[in-house]
Specification:
Elements: H1 2-23, E1 25-34, H2 42-53, E2 57-65, E3 68-78, H3 79-91, E4 101-106, H4 114-147, H5 150-157, H6 160-167, H7 170-177, H8 180-187, H9 190-232
Antiparallel strand pairs: 1-3, 1-4, 2-3
Length: about 240
Amino acid sequence: MGSSQSGLMGRSRNYNTKEDNLSFQMKLKITITGPKVHDVGYRPWLTEKAVDLALRGFEVYNDAEGDLQSVVALVDSDKRRATQFFEFAKAELPPLARIDDIRSEPYDEEIQPLWQSATLGTFVQINKAVPILQEMREDLREVKTNTNLIPEIAENTRLIPEIAENTRLIPEIAENTRLIPEIAENTRPIPEIAEKQDVIIDEIRGLHREMTFDAGWRARIESDIQAIKAKIGIR
């Protein structure tokens, strides 16, 4: 009986030892470095995961290592959740971030409670959002002002069908204008005709005088013939 109890106690101690290892409180300093880890949402990204894992203590802030940007996360939790957080940080990152290295090391100093860090982070993000929201408000006012022109635009676009109907005649106009070179070719002799107009008029006047003279001469001859016939008794 004693031996059996001793075996159970031994197994119980081994089981509890494993749990103790998983629940062992640990503090980690996780450093993320790269050319672009600032202003990409890294701090709220990590804070959200810390809240999801219900870490006891958590801090996150921007830093730098030489020419590289860095984000430092301080984690205070049991070993299991601290390890899960580190694995998440290695596997996931904000869409716009570019990293070179992620490392962790033990940390011995005090870490503030998660709720306090999350609250401060919320205030920081709100302060960042305020100027953006103000600018958006001004943009919305401008958009509202511009939309006042919509009725006028609608009135102007009302003429579009009429314009379309008028442009229907363009092919016919184009066909008619095709004759312009031929018209130009036909009118080309007009200056030459104008130059000869005086000569033509003089010739017409001369013909008119000749015709008038011939008519008078013919009348006199006919009169003389009638006189001769009368003298000799011929009718």
